[in-house]
Amino acid sequence: MSTLSELLELSLDEKTIIAEYIWIGGSGTDLRSKARTLPGPVTDVKKLPKWNYDGSSTNQAPGADSEVILYPQAIFKDPFRRGHNILVICDAYTPQGVAIPTNKRAAAAEIFAKKEVAEEVPWFGLEQEYTLLQKDIKWPLGWPQGGYPGPQGPYYCGTGADKAWGRDIVNAHYKACLYAGIQISGINGEVMPGQWEFQVGPAIGISAADQLWAARYILERITEIAGVVLSLDPKPIDGDWNGAGCHTNYSTKTMREEGGYAHIKEAINKLGLRHKEHIAQYGEGNERRLTGRHETADMNTFSWGVANRGASIRVGRDTEKEGKGYFEDRRPASNMDPYVVTSMIANTTILWKPKGSELILF
């Protein structure tokens, strides 16, 4: 009698593969997926068929007209089934070909396709912080039930059984992302115990957002296997504990070239002028995190600084010294939509042209 593990490891005929179609659900943060059989390996996303699902069961369509169409947009190797099997990041449309309201990728793709944006080759590095929770009590992994660990201090990049909880999950996710072809560039333990971070990028344009969603999906699957709950809440625990963000590092071709520091300052100025608009799109519940404490700037005030983790925008010492490079937008929450945030930053810094009288920061 075969075991479940043995059945899961069965090898398939190379002429048959399984494609896991992944999309964002009605909340804008939940991930949904379902699998289909294809007649052979596929490496070109344009050769994948469209598919459909019941949008009334994901809060994305009414029951009387529930069909939503999935458009494949990006392919990754499947670290769970392996072989030639694939994960497919999709976005969602009506049968008439109109992007549904929760499809934020379509609008982002339009921005990144604009000539002025494409010529600037925008790079993004996304720092995804997250918290691992005990499944039955929704309390951080490693924390005593109904109680608290010692104060923050020893946990950031910490080692040891009393400082780092969930490392096997984190390392499994790291390797799975590398296997999938995601440009994951690192991991680390965060300031609050039970909280971790992984980084995606630098990646160009909309690819950074596709990869972050794929990495989030893989993490959801791994925590599912481990019996642990993944939380992207920007402030999972009230009190003297750090929140969770998704700091967004950004540069353009002009910023990376000689004399780029002036263009960095110009971009920061534009972001300052549109601070309220950006904050409104940077994640639900972010007001609980952006308080001016715990390495954040107050959400009602825009600021920037060199090596200042208490500012809205941080410029690195190397960028200042070399006169070119990148900067970090520290405002986005851990639950932000990377399609929204990356395209909004590109739109504001490249396409938006403020009046001369509005250039007030520098």
UniProtKB/TrEMBL annotation:
Transmembrane segments: none annotated. Belongs to the glutamine synthetase family. Residues 104-362 form the GS catalytic domain. Keywords: ATP-binding, Cytoplasm, Ligase, Nucleotide-binding. It is found in: Cytoplasm. Gene3D superfamilies: Glutamine synthetase, N-terminal domain, Glutamine synthetase/guanido kinase, catalytic domain. PROSITE patterns: GLNA_1, GLNA_ATP, GS_BETA_GRASP, GS_CATALYTIC. It catalyses: L-glutamate + NH4(+) + ATP = L-glutamine + ADP + phosphate + H(+). Pfam families: Gln-synt_C. The keyword ATP-binding applies. This is Glutamine synthetase. Residues 17-97 form the GS beta-grasp domain. Its EC number is 6.3.1.2. Its main location: cytoplasm.
